[in-house]
Design goal:
2 copies of one chain form a homodimer. Chain A has helices at residues 7-16, 63-70, 103-115, 118-122, and strands at residues 25-31, 37-43, 54-59, 73-80, 85-96, 154-168, 175-181, 187-192. The first copy, chain A, is α+β, with helices and mostly antiparallel strands. Chains A and B meet through strand 1, strand 2, strand 4, strand 5 and strand 8 of A and strand 1, strand 2, strand 4, strand 5 and strand 8 of B.
Chain lengths: 194, 194
Amino acid sequence: MSPATWRSPLSAALHRNRAQPESRYFQLATVTPEGRPQNRTVVFRGFSEPTNQLKIITDDRSEKIAQIEHHPWGEICWYFTQTREQFRLSGKLTIVDQNYPDATLQQERQQTWQSLSDAARLQFAWPHPAQPRTEEKEVFSPPPPDVNKPLPNFCLLLFNPETVDHLELRGNPQNRWQHRQDESKTWFVEAVNP
Amino acid sequence: MSPATWRSPLSAALHRNRAQPESRYFQLATVTPEGRPQNRTVVFRGFSEPTNQLKIITDDRSEKIAQIEHHPWGEICWYFTQTREQFRLSGKLTIVDQNYPDATLQQERQQTWQSLSDAARLQFAWPHPAQPRTEEKEVFSPPPPDVNKPLPNFCLLLFNPETVDHLELRGNPQNRWQHRQDESKTWFVEAVNP
């Protein structure tokens, strides 16, 4: 696999904005089976090394699961406030759920589960998201799940970028680049007008 | 028109996060004619009072114009870092371009143009966005456009929310509400599980 031309500027952005915890949040857009866009903030969980796929986690009770199963395309919009730059990554999503057949990815699903905070793991034991609010407070304080065994509804999402648009708002004029792949899947970059 | 139940919590969020300029940026997702999601950061330009429509500006040379003409649905994801809360607004977009027939909205298009900074107006006189980078620096320093006459490619975008999902990450458990409209278009709100 050729090195992706966008990995270096994205690493630099993550480094320069590291003082802000929200620099690891981005907005993921997907499409419903009816063809409408949906958009939500998710947390970047690192890369699935040695690939260029970004790791996200989700609950299989979340609406985005049905959306991705029906239509695997997504677009990430990642805005860094400190350096005032934006990355738009367009690509395909893979859902690694409890039944996903690949042993390596099951291992990565487990490692990602282990790397979560206690509070993050606990949310997967909460009542069904987006259903009418459960009044019993105690259902939001269940016993902590096993650190070594992901709950069945825990999913690893892998996002595989096909194109990346990078905009720097600083500078006059602004700078913008488009990262794409040629027929042999080699990444190249082109400067475009902002 | 009934008052929208989400206007008050959104106003509160804008007020509490006002120290950060980026609290007025949000991510707008649309769908391409091929059915793929697209997602980009845009600036909130206030409401088209007295309606509940959010104002955005765009260039008619931008890709989102063709997307919205083909498929007017969008979803805004608006994350406030200071108060750690997210609003997801799902609704329809209207493009008020230079040929839009409504006189009141043409006036609003002109007022929005007048309210922009000189730098923001100047960008509408720049070369075609996303085309190979124009090397001549002087084309990015054109004469300032007329403050009172929007350039032909300047568009006002109006976003009309149909549902709003509000999530507060602070609190244990977190709080989440869904704002919807009944058959008579009266807004109501329901607490749901986070």
